[in-house]
Amino acid sequence: MTEDVDRLDAQAREILNRNDRGGYTIPTAGLYPYQWNWDSAFAAWGFSTFDIDRAWTEIETLFKAQWPDGMVPHIVFWQDDPGYFPGPDIWGTGTDPASSGISQPPVAAILARRIWEADPDAGRDRIAALYPRLVDWHRWWHRHRCTSGVAAITHPWESGRDNCPDWDPGMAGVDGSGVGPYTRRDTGHVDASMRPRKEDYDRYLAILNFGRGCGWDQETIIADGPFLMADPFITFILIRAHRDLAAIGKALGHDTAELEAWADALVAGLPTIWNEALGCHDARDLRSGRFAGVLGSGAFLAWLAGPVAPEVEARLVEVWDRVPHGVPSADPAYAGFEPRRYWRGPMWPVVNSLIAMGLTDAGRADLAERLRAETAGAITRGGFNEYFDPVDGTPCGGKDFSWTAAIWLTWASPSAGAKGAT
Ligand code: DGY
Fold it and tell me: What is the pTM of this model?
């Protein structure tokens, strides 16, 4: 047993080192050959278990691509790679370094706080330099994505959960018929049955084209863009991230009232995404007002914002109980549930690590341990894949994935528990 754990720990470190491209880590070779925003924050957390300097460098490299308005882009194209579509020429943002025009779940402050706590002396100067940049990014979220009261996304890719059923009502209103011919690269790396469908890609590109067409002007995108949906997943992450950043700020001697007010405003907005019929928080199309009506990973992050009511917890556990291998990204009882197609049902170790963080803080260490054990079992049997089929545990998507290696080292591995990482 200990030998197995040692071997898997070593393999996880080896994956992070192998995916290191010099200052930043790619999620996986082939499928995702650049720096991705939230992947990188998780990679940094993973590095912090064996190379604290490298952990800070990962976040610093990501923030080198921060836009003047505070946005931290979802992809940074540090070098050319014809194996990925859509590349920098399609995004047309004109930034240096080249980057995409949308953001991604703001987990960096949550994980930076943990990295700092892992070695307060080594991290003090690094976090002090990053702090104002993190505040600028959080301010960008507050100004440009939280005007409805909760966090919204302007593109399914901005959610990090690209094709989950949450986005179906918003995607139904997007016309993808005029995007013209293009060649996808993702299906050359991973079986097409695990990836979003062509009609999804047509719409992803139509939304991207709108952003490029208006020069990535946020006011135009929010007012007239083809897609705008409130996202419980990012809302819960942002509540927690604002609070974690405030804790960092306080420790550094800053006034953090602004951050605390942003978190409080999001908590006050939560009733607008409460779907009574579903018994949990739900994604909502801000153009039509329609709820997605699917219980998914967004609802499961509720614990990140604090304890949840017993009836909500019972509802969430009821859905989790439907599968043996971790929390499914969509309710298996939902008619469109697909256990292996990207975000339309699979279990994601990285999401489980965030759910467990909330559970632990909300005093549900028993549920956090159940989730850790189910996640660890899937990785031990299947490898460090991007995600897993929650019904039979089959490893899916990209192999040797940085964020799966990272959450193994920080949380899922039995040796991580010994270090008190949860
Ligand atoms: C992709 O290309 O599949 C990415 O998830 C977009 O960020």
Answer: 0.98
